User: Which sequence fits this backbone?
């Protein structure tokens, strides 16, 4: 891997929680950062505060609502047009089990179940549209922030119209992320682009966790360390297709290894994203 001060890194969901803390660490190390979020005011505030605390002037704001695949396409187009090098893509943006504490089924602007759309489909589309840029920036890394909370994708009811549960929706979206990570690892030359995923820490004190009424069990710093390792550790050069629980390699739900299921998910995702 090249030195961090020679890298441009895109972090989605960078206005608070893990994404924002991760951005501050990477800014301190001199990386050029593309920070994504869906709220301009919060994005500008995050950049101002990170710049003030780190002295970095290499921070760029990119707005897109991941509940809209058109906005994801626009984000990918802006990155491709504006930045000749992207050495790392961190798919961190996501929503939790509930919305303002309420467990209710919601849909994206495209009519897809919201957690599947935001946590999985948006990252799928963004990554697919940036693969060429990542390849041109080799060695490059894709890091998907997933979870130990995983549930198999029900191909008879992917959008959970029959039996909705927020925890199930979240867990299904996270396993889909892991399945996608393994697909990428099989597709890509690990000498050029690697793809790994992780559960950074359990119940960090983030907005997602607090909104769900959960009691924090891990520090934010713990999650940042685990995620930062996948982005920056030279010892992971060429390492691909792994799922980590913190810093330890772990085994995900068995569906992640099911090639037929991954093929069905890939076909569905390409269809939904019009790829």
Assistant:
């Amino acid at each position: 891997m090249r030195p961090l001060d020679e890298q441009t890194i895109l972090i989605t969901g960078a206005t608070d929680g893990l994404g924002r803390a991760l951005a501050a660490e990477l800014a301190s190390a001199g990386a050029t950062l593309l920070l994504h979020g869906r709220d301009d005011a919060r994005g500008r505030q995050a950049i101002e505060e990170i710049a003030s605390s780190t002295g970095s002037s290499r921070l760029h704001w990119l707005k897109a609502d991941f509940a809209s695949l058109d906005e994801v396409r626009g984000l990918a187009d802006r990155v491709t047009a504006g930045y000749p090098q992207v050495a790392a893509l961190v798919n961190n943006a996501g929503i939790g089990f509930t919305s303002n504490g309420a467990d209710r089924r919601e849909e994206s602007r495209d009519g897809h179940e919201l957690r599947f759309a935001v946590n999985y489909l948006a990252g799928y589309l963004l990554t697919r549209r940036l693969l060429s840029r990542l390849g041109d920036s080799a060695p490059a890394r894709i890091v998907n922030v997933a979870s130990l909370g995983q549930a198999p994708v029900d191909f008879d009811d992917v959008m959970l119209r029959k039996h909705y549960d927020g925890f199930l929706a979240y867990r299904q979206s996270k396993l889909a992320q892991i399945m996608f990570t393994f697909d990428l690892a099989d597709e890509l030359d690990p000498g050029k682009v690697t793809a790994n995923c992780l559960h950074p820490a359990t119940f960090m004190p983030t907005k997602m966790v607090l909104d769900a009424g959960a009691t924090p069990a891990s520090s934010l710093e713990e999650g940042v360390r685990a995620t930062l390792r996948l982005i920056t550790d030279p010892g992971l050069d060429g390492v691909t297709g792994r799922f980590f629980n913190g810093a330890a390699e772990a085994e995900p739900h068995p569906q992640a290894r099911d090639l037929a299921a991954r093929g069905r998910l890939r076909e569905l995702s390409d269809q939904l994203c019009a790829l």
User: Anything to note?
Assistant: The longest strand covers residues 193-199.
